[in-house]
Design goal:
The complex is a heterodimer of chains A (290) and B (235). Chain A has eleven helices and two strands, in the order ααααββααααααα. Chain A has helices spanning 2-30, 37-54, 59-82, 91-112, 137-159, 161-171, 173-177, 183-209, 216-231, 236-256, 262-276; strands spanning 127-130, 133-136. Chain A has a two-stranded antiparallel sheet. In chain A, a hairpin with a 2-residue loop joins strand 1 (127-130) and strand 2 (133-136). The termini of chain A are far apart. Chain B has 235 residues and is an alpha/beta fold. Chain B has a single domain, classed as Rossmann fold (3-Layer(aba) Sandwich). Chain B has ten helices and ten strands. Chain B has helices at 40-47, 70-75, 93-100, 107-120, 122-126, 137-149, 167-182, 194-200, 218-222, 225-230; strands spanning 2-11, 14-24, 29-34, 55-60, 63-64, 78-81, 155-159, 186-191, 203-208, 211-217. In chain B, the strands form two sheets. Chain B has a six-stranded mixed beta sheet, with helices on both faces. Classes of the chains: A mainly alpha (290), B alpha/beta (235). Chain A binds chain B through residues 161, 164-165, 167-168, 171-172, 174-183, and chain B through 48-50, 69-72, 74-75, 79-80, 82, 86, 88-91, 95, 98-100, 102-103, 147, 151.
Chain lengths: 290, 235
């Protein structure tokens, strides 16, 4: 029972982690919380749904294309809603982010209706029992793809030239510019990667819960933000760790306290982290205003 | 090589430098001396495009830098060692040096240049896998200079390389500045330490509250009474 709850918690934790990565990467570079990120995740999910259900593309192609489209959406949002505010007081891009969030949720509702869509069947759902724990094929898909995405990101950020430039930009945009790095390009790449990961999370969770709807980004976005803060916002390993811890904590709460407390657990964690250790588990010490 | 014409930079409404005219000929070391807040750093930031000019032109090999994106200026052959060194503390020494060569694609030459930097600054090689934030001030200065050289610049901008360093380290740093120049790189140097600056430069400018108050060859400046008194402390 306990082991099974942990497995289920890790599954949803992977989803939180994938979304949290986008929050943390953008924060790492621009020091802004992209509150539209939950809605980017929702849009990714809809892109996947439309490409499979309406366009009829095979799952793998639709998955990749949805990630690309969502990446472009992320780039567009940075260009339109954040770039001009880069040197404003930090509360200003925050307001802009909320505006984008409201806009996207309403756009989705206008385009696709407010009802809950079911997700087309993309694979044979089987379950496997290993050492008393049950895994479904969807869970295995979530684990597999999430781990591949995280390892890929880790390699990109730490081992490639652009990844190194990205880390430099997150330390100092000015000094990175002095290296000849086109920091606007780096910021675009950051938004693109974060958004593509959110799209992956969106499609995976839609398959898992069999539901796509315009407001799905709201709670998921806040939870992933909690995960990013818990792990230490700005830290990539922190986002993954925070996501997994949050997913497990939520599932244990559902199992041992009551299912209706699921959301309360996440936000209690957020409040506790902010009071006890605002920099999170792996975050660096710094003085923050927002 | 570099010609600054009538450069004016404002921070908000406050002018930091006013109508500055400076020339840096190829192959020379030109220094800007002056006290805190005299506009030396702002001038360098203007050249590298980090601050925007309100008026004036900055011509580098005939091209006006005020119309070029800051990162493109590095591609044109100007590298800056910024005030406070600007190393990336969470990155290793090696990663910092590799970022210096960010604009280059000639992998083989980058590798041999890295060896050269290590022979110029052996301390950096010993510490290449260390996070650069753990280096001493002098080592960070060496790293910042090595990093700027990795871009193979035609013009090297140095902002207060002596800042916060022990006299013996300052001597070492300036020896290297001279060597860099002898190997063919033009240098524009900003310093509060006028004595050291004038020991390596060919030509100098004296800045006070954003304006040039004196200029000349190093010998002329060294023999100028005002400069001897105020900047060199010789009575």
């Amino acid at each position: 029972m306990l082991a099974q709850q942990i497995v289920n918690g890790l599954t949803i934790g992977m989803i939180y982690a994938l979304i949290a990565l986008g929050y943390t990467m953008v924060y790492g570079i621009l020091k802004i919380v992209n509150f539209a990120h939950g809605d980017i995740f929702m849009m990714g999910s809809f892109f996947g749904l439309i490409l499979i259900r309406n366009v009829g593309l095979p799952f793998v192609v639709a998955f990749a294309l949805a990630a690309v489209l969502t990446a472009l959406l992320g780039i567009l949002i940075e260009r339109l809603a954040y770039r001009r505010l880069r040197f404003s007081d930090r509360i200003v891009p925050l307001i802009s982010a909320m505006g984008v969030s409201i806009f996207l949720a309403n756009l989705a509702q206008k385009l696709w209706g407010s009802e809950v869509h079911t997700f087309p069947k993309v694979m044979e759902i089987k379950t496997y029992t290993i050492a008393g724990m049950t895994f479904s094929t969807v869970q295995l898909l979530i684990f597999g793809l999430s781990i591949i995405a995280m390892l890929g990101l880790h390699f990109f950020v730490n081992k490639t030239k652009i990844g190194t430039a990205m880390r430099a930009t997150s330390i100092s945009i000015t000094n990175a510019t002095l290296m000849g790095i086109n920091t606007n390009m780096i910021i675009m790449i950051t938004f693109a990667i974060g958004s593509a990961l959110a799209a992956a999370a969106g499609i995976l969770v839609s398959i898992y819960y069999d539901a796509v709807y315009p407001t799905m980004g709201y709670t998921a976005g806040l939870k992933a933000f909690t995960a990013a803060v818990l792990g230490g916002i700005g830290s990539i390993p922190g986002a993954v760790l925070g996501g997994l811890i949050l997913g497990v904590a939520e599932n244990l709460g559902i199992a041992y306290i009551a299912a209706k407390y699921q959301d309360i657990i996440a936000f209690c964690i957020l409040i506790l982290v902010l009071i006890i250790r605002p920099r999170g588990i792996l975050g660096k010490k710094e003085i923050n205003k927002v | 090589m570099l010609k600054i014409e009538g450069l004016t930079v404002h921070y908000g409404v406050i002018p930091a430098i006013k109508d500055l005219n400076i020339e840096v000929p190829q192959g020379k070391v030109v220094c800007l001396i002056g006290t805190n807040g005299s506009g030396k750093t702002t001038t360098l930031k203007g050249v590298s495009g980090i601050v925007k000019a309100k008026a004036g032109r900055i011509l580098f090999e005939g091209k006006d830098l005020t119309k070029v994106d800051p990162h493109q200026i590095v591609h044109m052959g100007i590298s800056q060692v910024p005030e406070g060194r600007g190393v990336f503390p969470d990155l290793t020494v090696l990663e910092n040096l590799q970022l210096g060569a960010f604009i280059r694609k000639d992998k083989k030459a980058i590798k041999s240049d890295l060896e050269e930097i290590f022979s110029l600054f052996p301390r950096l090689e010993e510490r290449k896998n260390q996070l650069s934030g753990t280096l001493s001030g002098g080592e960070q200065q060496m790293l910042a200079m090595g990093r700027a050289l990795m871009a193979r610049p035609k013009l090297l901008l140095l902002d207060e390389p002596s800042m916060g360093l022990a006299p013996i380290i300052v001597q070492e740093i300036f020896k290297i500045v001279r060597r860099i120049n002898e190997e063919g790189t033009t240098v524009m140097l900003v310093e509060q330490n006028a004595k050291m600056a004038l020991s390596v430069a060919h030509y100098g400018y004296v800045l006070e509250t954003g304006e040039i108050v004196a200029q000349g060859t190093v010998n002329e400046l060294k023999n100028d009474d005002m400069i001897r008194k105020i900047y060199l402390g010789i009575h």
